Structure formats: C-alpha cells, structure tokens
Amino acid sequence: MSIETRKPQERALSRRNVTFTAIFVCFSVVVGIYAYRTLSIGTAAEMGAGFFPVMLSIVLGFLALAVAFTPISAGAQPLRFASIKSSVLVLGAPLIFAVTIQSLGLVAAVALTIFFSSFASRFATLRQSLLLAVGFTVFCVAVFHFLLNLPIPLWGDLITG
C-alpha cells in the first residue's frame, strides 16, 4: 500500500508530531548543552546547579522523541497559531512573577501570575481563574515554603511595610 492510499491514522509518522518533536528536541539539546557547559553538574548525592536543568533537558528530549511515534486520531485538528492574547498572557506570566516576587512575596506573586495566565484559555471564567489561583498558591506555599524551606518570603516589602 503506497503512502498516498493510506489513511491518516495509518501513517508511520505524522507531520504534526515530527514538527513538535523537532522543536522540543532542539530546545532540549540547546538548554542541556548550555547547562552542562556553564553550570556545575555534581552527582546525584550532591547536585550542582546544572544537575536539574541537564536531567530535565534529557527527559524533555526523550518525551519529545516518544511523541514522534504517537499516532494521531483521524479527527485531530490541524496545528494553528495561538491567539495574540493567549501568547502575551503565557509569555508574560514569568515576567509578572519576576516583577512581583520581591515586592509582594510568594503568596501574591503566585496568585497574580496564575490568575492572569489562566485567561490565556478561551474557556476561562473568573470563578475558575480565582479557584485555580488560590489552589495553586496554597500548593506552592506548602511545597516551597514549608516542605523545602526555601528562603522566599511569603509576603513582600510592599505588603509588610
């Protein structure tokens, strides 16, 4: 059976998955090499600053490669660009966090970041965004402040005076 007469779900590789794989494998290789060359890796027992970025880039690369061989259903939507609003909100989220973490603290920075970035979805409602922001903030405070004891203040200079 020639490739032209095959049904879309019977193809060995889909163009959509290969595109995704190429983008994320390139990203993982660049980040992994950069972290390996510029940061101390250390060992699993005594991790350096580069250990996590290198391991994360390796995992991302393997996950991306696995996607290349995942079949797409016949009814899958074609790839399309995200809206400008969604792109700005998602790309602006780290900026919101970076600008607010010192002045407002962990609680307010995470809540604001999650609240605003949740509106990148066209299905987001005010209630869902508030619940997501509260839930994720509680999770982040529990993990980063209480469990990991990271020296991040819960409340920033603007709030504590």
Query: First CA to last CA: what distance?
Result: 73 Å
The total beta strand count reads: 0
Tell the overall outline: flat
DSSP summary: helix tally: 5
Helical residues, percent: 55-70%
Order of SSEs: HHHHH
The low-confidence parts are none
Average pLDDT rating: 87
Radius of gyration computed on alpha carbons: 21 Å
Q: Please state roughly what percent of the residues sit in beta strands, choosing from under 5%, 5-15%, 15-25%, 25-35%, 35-45% or over 45%.
A: under 5%
Tell me about the largest β-sheet: none
Structural class: mainly alpha
Instruction: State the domain count.
Output: 2
Explain how this protein is built.
The chain has 161 residues and is mainly α. It contains 5 helices and no strands. It folds into 2 domains: 8-68, no CATH class; 84-160, no CATH class. The radius of gyration is 21 Å and the shape is flat. 9% of the residues are buried. Residues 21-153 form the DUF1468 domain.
Q: Would you kindly provide a brief summary of this structure?
A:
Keywords: Membrane, Transmembrane, Transmembrane helix. InterPro entries: DUF1468 (IPR009936). With 161 residues, the chain is mainly alpha-helical.
Topology summary:
Elements (H helix, E strand, L loop, with lengths): L14 H24 L12 H18 L15 H35 L7 H22 L9 H4 L1
Fill in the keyword field for this structure:
flat, 2 domains, 161 residues, mainly alpha
